[in-house]
Amino acid sequence: MVNLSSCLLLFLLSLHCFVASLATYTKNITTDQYALLAFKSLITSDPYDILSNNWSTTSYVCSWVGVTCDERHNRVNSLKISNMRLGGTISPNLGNLSFLVILNLSHNSFSGQFPKEIYRLHRLKVISISFNEFEGGIPEVLGDLSRLQILKLGANNFSGFPPQSIGNLRQLKSLDISQNMLSGPIPQTISNMSSLEYLGLQYNYFSGIRFVKLYLKNNSFNGQFPKELCRLRRLKVPHINYNEFEVGIHVLQPQI
Ligand SMILES: *[C@@H]1O[C@H](CO)[C@@H](O)[C@H](O)[C@H]1NC(C)=O
Ligand SMILES: *[C@@H]1O[C@H](CO)[C@@H](O)[C@H](O)[C@H]1NC(C)=O
Ligand SMILES: *[C@@H]1O[C@H](CO)[C@@H](O)[C@H](O)[C@H]1NC(C)=O
Ligand SMILES: *[C@@H]1O[C@H](CO)[C@@H](O)[C@H](O)[C@H]1NC(C)=O
Ligand SMILES: *[C@@H]1O[C@H](CO)[C@@H](O)[C@H](O)[C@H]1NC(C)=O
Ligand SMILES: *[C@@H]1O[C@H](CO)[C@@H](O)[C@H](O)[C@H]1NC(C)=O
Ligand SMILES: *[C@@H]1O[C@H](CO)[C@@H](O)[C@H](O)[C@H]1NC(C)=O
């Protein structure tokens, strides 16, 4: 016997998928402009009037300050608005900038949660949102951005446990989650991040680490140094003082 309601459901589902794919297909530079205007609309502080005057519909979006476009696809490929004393929250429409490769919002006063819609931006290679006031958890969906090479979330107010999904980022070279309110164990999956060269974890509330001062200073140390960090062979030691350097080298010896 044919189950009509499940056929109908299937039909509606495929219709939904068709409409959804059509919507993706028709994204263009107008979508990007709309997304950036939505982004601008949630900016509550712009003391130097940088975006308020410049990001205007009377000029082409690719000429807006901090915005560059990819000539081949004619879509926005980077948004770099560091150090402009901008404040406000981040619009989920950011997730519509589907050709974005570089996102640099560092050294501003952006706050609230970082939108999980970022998971749609599969081309992203660089995210820097350091030195802002973001709060809440680090979005788990960051682990879906498989092309990421640089992820800088330091000096914010992120809390909770860092998501295990971060370990999916096999191309990541630099991970900085220092100076937040993160706690719990350091994700074991970090041992799978074979491209990692820099790891900044200091000034958080991580547990399970004892004596490492280098990247890990000022945490709630009370156990053994996690074995998984020892497997990160390419990890380089940043220039801090000599004693800390020694500790770093010693601890980060690869164990085969
Ligand atoms: C973008 O697509 C919309 C339809 O989805 C269209 O109206 C608009 O003119 C297009 N913009 C450009 C710049 O091609
Ligand atoms: C916006 O800023 C860019 C870069 O500084 C400049 O080239 C452009 O002319 C400005 N546009 C307007 C409308 O002010
Ligand atoms: C862009 O993103 C927002 C929020 O994620 C959504 O509501 C909107 O429909 C999206 N699409 C376009 C074409 O702006
Ligand atoms: C972000 O922009 C600032 C200011 O231009 C720059 O110093 C910093 O290196 C950039 N971050 C990344 C990860 O490119
Ligand atoms: C971080 O969060 C704490 C507690 O919620 C709050 O007191 C503090 O002002 C926040 N700091 C920043 C920089 O947002
Ligand atoms: C590392 O990746 C492998 C292969 O995907 C997986 O089986 C393993 O569980 C991962 N290890 C950790 C600690 O996540
Ligand atoms: C360690 O962190 C705590 C709380 O974040 C802070 O009060 C203290 O001054 C820090 N200690 C050092 C040596 O920076």
TrEMBL record:
Q: What SUPFAM superfamilies does this protein's entry cite?
A: L domain-like
Which keywords does UniProt give here?
Kinase, Leucine-rich repeat, Receptor, Repeat, Signal, Transferase
InterPro entries referenced in this protein's UniProt entry, alphabetically: DNA_repair-toleration (IPR053211), LRR_dom_sf (IPR032675), LRR_N_plant-typ (IPR013210), LRR_R13L4/SHOC2-like (IPR055414)
Please state the span of the N-terminal signal peptide per the UniProt entry. 1-23
Disease resistance R13L4/SHOC-2-like LRR domain span:
89-244
- Cross-referenced Pfam families: LRR_14 (PF23598), LRRNT_2 (PF08263)
Q: Name one GO molecular function term.
A: kinase activity
Any idea where the Leucine-rich repeat-containing N-terminal plant-type domain is? 31-70
Under the heading PANTHER family, the entry gives:
DNA DAMAGE-REPAIR/TOLERATION PROTEIN DRT100 (PTHR48060), L DOMAIN-LIKE PROTEIN (PTHR48060:SF21)
| Protein name, entry field | LRR receptor-like kinase
